[in-house]
């Protein structure tokens, strides 16, 4: 999934790439060394830094873990750590946005560091599995709540699960999964992942490859 090249990037992708480069250079790392630490190819990392790629959340998480930074730093926020009474308020439409193919993601609570949960609001614009490359799969568990529209969640182990507004599903993240909108309009969902090492957000598969 980490090789999807977009056309010359929009401002958000360019800004993200610039911050990735700054984080790498701040540690005096070459592209080659950083690519090994992050577990992504040198060419992929270079495309991200130059704003030529809209990276998947999987790639973003690998960069975050490899460079030992907080994901909020890549979106221009400075995460805060508090010993007690932790809280993070995100006003409507004020989350950090990231787009990848059939998902328009709004990351929530990005000003809080070292979270046990990764919450995001997603508009699912993909209506078929053809829009994506691979299963979403990682350690931990996930919770999906449909805000509007309807969704079909595909899984390696279970029959496709159809969800309408107000329905929710809690599942093992290690099982390959994928979601598409089955309503005429794009579906909107609240999606949360929990893990000590979150390595991939929701993704979908290319049905022609399975």
TrEMBL record:
Domain of life: Bacteria
Annotated Gene Ontology cellular component terms: cytosol
Record keywords: DNA-binding
One Pfam family, short name: HTH_3
Any one GO MF annotation of this record: DNA binding
SUPFAM superfamilies: lambda repressor-like DNA-binding domains, RmlC-like cupins
PANTHER family attached to this UniProt entry: BLR4304 PROTEIN, HTH-TYPE TRANSCRIPTIONAL REGULATOR
Listed name of the protein: Putative transcriptional regulator
Species this protein is from: Paraburkholderia ribeironis
